[in-house]
Design a protein that fits this description.
mainly beta; 2 domains; eight-stranded antiparallel beta sheet; six-stranded antiparallel beta sheet; 3 helices; 7% helix; elongated; signal
Length: 309
């Protein structure tokens, strides 16, 4: 029996990149992508004047429109020109910025090797067989997304696993998807088959420690529950178990905060048996490090609240 576990890393590393101090009149980006998730949540609740005040408290300064009107928007060294709802005819700000790199999930392979997945979007976590010209028997992908959306190099929110997608001939014609979402939010933790409706796992339809079967078919079962599996560190949260043949995948959610202002992430673990002759591909397999050799952390900018613009 083999057991692998995927953990979420929430860390950013300092790394200098080139400063952007000027923007053309047609290319001034919005200011809020420079903020962290908690500040973005607060920002969206405010009117234009209040949004400007929040940005000023984070190290941004209101600037007048350039003259002539066709001129570029400029800021001092280590400051970035961006647009906000500034009153009285002025419509851009200069924000002091710091340069970081985006963090992402940490993966422990079947050989105990630790890898960092900095790339957002879908990545293959597990595949059987390792090499297959035809559709694989089992293909498991993870979708890594930030809590707060990026705007090119603006925004340094760490990536986390937001979805796990199961495909392959052993799964059937339709994919299986498990998504993250706080139990009390408008889009909670849920499962769906293909493009069908989401089956929510929330406080509205579950009680603690009561396991529910979401799918039962030849060779594939999906169950879910709400429980406190690590009560010393986390309260009750949702989980799903996807069993395909002799392999069982556990998808455990961890949530910080409440409702639509929460931050939910997924841990993935797998245990069971498989044919060694077929081999295992994907990030958990023996070539996991090779697959990530060319993937580097993305440099990014965030508001530097420790200084004023």
């Amino acid at each position: 029996m083999y057991h692998y576990r995927l953990l979420v890393l929430c860390a950013c590393i300092w790394s200098p990149v080139g400063a952007g101090r000027m923007a053309t009149k047609s290319g001034v980006p919005p200011c809020h992508p420079l903020l962290d998730f908690d500040s973005v949540v607060q920002f969206r609740k405010l009117n234009g004047t209040q949004q400007v005040s929040l940005l000023e408290s984070r190290g941004c300064e209101v600037r007048s429109n350039p003259v002539p009107a066709t001129a570029d928007y400029t800021c001092e060294e280590n400051s970035f020109a961006c647009a906000s709802n500034v009153p009285n005819g002025t419509n851009y700000m200069c924000c002091k910025v710091k340069y970081l790199t985006r963090g992402g999930p940490k993966i422990t392979t079947m050989f105990g090797e630790s890898l960092h997945l900095f790339e957002t979007g879908l990545s293959t976590l597990f595949q059987i067989p390792k090499v297959s010209e035809a559709p694989p028997s089992l293909l498991v992908k993870i979708n890594v997304q930030p809590y707060a959306p990026y705007w090119y190099t603006m925004g340094c929110e760490e990536g986390r696993i937001s979805e796990v997608v199961f495909n392959g001939t052993a799964v059937g014609e339709s994919s299986l998807t498990v998504r993250s979402g706080a139990l009390s939010s408008s889009e909670p933790f849920a499962f769906r088959l293909g493009e069908g409706p989401w089956q929510d796992v929330s406080w509205n339809n579950y009680v603690v420690d009561n396991e529910t079967t979401l799918l039962s078919s030849p060779g594939v079962t999906v169950t879910s529950m709400i429980s406190a599996k690590d009560p010393k560190h986390w309260g009750p949260d949702a989980s799903a178990t996807v069993t395909v043949g002799g392999l069982s995948f556990g998808v455990q959610q961890r949530t910080l905060g409440n409702g639509d202002e929460s931050k939910s992430m997924l841990d993935v673990s797998v245990q069971g048996t498989y044919s060694k002759s077929a081999g295992v591909g994907g990030l958990l397999g023996p070539d996991g490090a090779i697959l990530l050799q060319s993937v580097e952390a993305v440099p990014c900018m965030a508001v530097d609240s420790s200084v004023r613009a």
